[in-house]
Amino acid sequence: MKELLAVSASPHIRGKIDISLAMKMVIIALLPSFIFSVHLFGLRALYITLISIITCIVCEAIMQRMLGKKITITDGSAVLTGLLLAFNLPPGVPLWLPVVGSAFAIIFAKQLFGGLGYNFINPALAGRAFLMASWPLAMTKEWLAPAGGTLSGIDGITSATPLNLLQNPGNYGVPELIIKQLNNIPTIKNLFFGKIGGCIGETSALLLLIGGLFLIIIGIVDYRIVVGYLGSFVLLAFVLPTNGNLLFHLFSGGLFLGVFFMATDWVTSPVTKKGRWIFGIGCGVLTIIIRIWGGYPEGVSYSILLMNVFTPIIDRFTKERVFGDRKAKKEVKK
Question: pLDDT digit of tens for each residue in the chain (334 aa)?
Fold first, then answer.
């Protein structure tokens, strides 16, 4: 036989959504946030995003060619990786930074593990973590104030994002006054609609929420991870001691970006229903713990990466009963 057949265990279920269509739907869901980011930060946000996407596509093609694989850059996965990586970068970073981060994401976090479907961690988040470890100043200092808004949410403070400000209020003024301003209604509204600075794609919680709900409705995203993540996060943010109120923590940083678009990655999240609940809850718990007690003000990226590592174990201990299988009856000794 000239052609090899792929054989797997039954039952066989064929879905209406293939990989390429799923990737395109996720990209479409992110487009409003991308357009809004260009409005907020100008052409620099566009340049960083395009550089990140083009680098991912080129690295994907080169690696697949070197490894003797079929080139699949048209499936949208490389484009999505580049888009998500750009969304996790400050808008003021030097233009070579997305090149390095995208190359690391595709080469080391994806292709060297076998390509799409074989990577055990989210490539975009792996690229971001690599950049954070290698160039921490560029990843934490190169912020830009958005058009029509402020970087920190407080007039006069131009060198810190809201989460940075919440973690170290004494470095910027009177702590009690700063905390009060961060938790007031105008600041919360600006966080929700997107008039406060941050990474390129995390500024508008509203647009990310709309895109995320769209993906849940059409069946691309499993609600279990989303509900588990947000539910555990909200519960702990409400009961644990923190200077920020519940709405501040919910709308600030990259929480909605991580919940809807990265924690729900098909490849790096569990396949079982119970496993997805556990995965989502674990992400929420780790995120709020890092935010409150960690040295880093944002915990979304690292919480998802840590839970990615545990995905195979979660799947192993939450696997469903095999279809048509039944326990063997024990023989009764006479």
Answer: 344 444 444 454 555 667 889 999 999 999 999 999 999 999 999 999 999 999 999 999 999 999 999 999 999 999 999 999 999 999 999 999 999 999 999 999 999 998 888 899 999 999 999 999 999 999 988 899 899 888 888 887 877 889 988 988 888 888 899 999 999 999 999 999 998 989 999 999 999 999 999 999 999 999 999 999 999 999 999 999 888 899 999 999 999 999 999 999 999 999 999 999 999 999 999 999 999 998 888 889 999 999 999 999 999 999 876 665 565 555 555 4
By the 8 A CB rule, do 35 and 211 touch? no
**pTM higher than 0.85, yes or no?**
yes
- According to DSSP, the residues that pair with 150 across neighbouring strands are 196
- The number of residues in the chain equals 334
The four Cα atoms 269, 293, 246, 162 give a dihedral, to 10 degrees, of -100
Q: Judge whether 119 and 113 are in contact, CB under 8 Å.
A: yes
252: Cα within 13 Å, side-chain hemisphere? 28
Q: What distance in Å separates the CA atoms of residue 67 and residue 284, rounded to the nearest whole number?
A: 37
**Which residues, at least 6 apart from 297, have a Cβ–Cβ distance to it below 8 Å?**
161, 163, 164, 166, 167, 253, 291
Helix (H, G, I), strand (E, B) or coil at 150: strand
Using alpha carbons, select from 274, 266, 263, 273 the residue that is nearest to residue 307: 263
Side chain identity, residue 28 = I
CB 244 within 8 A of CB 183: yes
What are residue 45's DSSP bridge partners? Answer: none
Structure tokens at 80: 């999505």
**Cis omega (within 30 of 0) for bond into 241:** no
Question: What residue has token string 């699949």?
Answer: 72
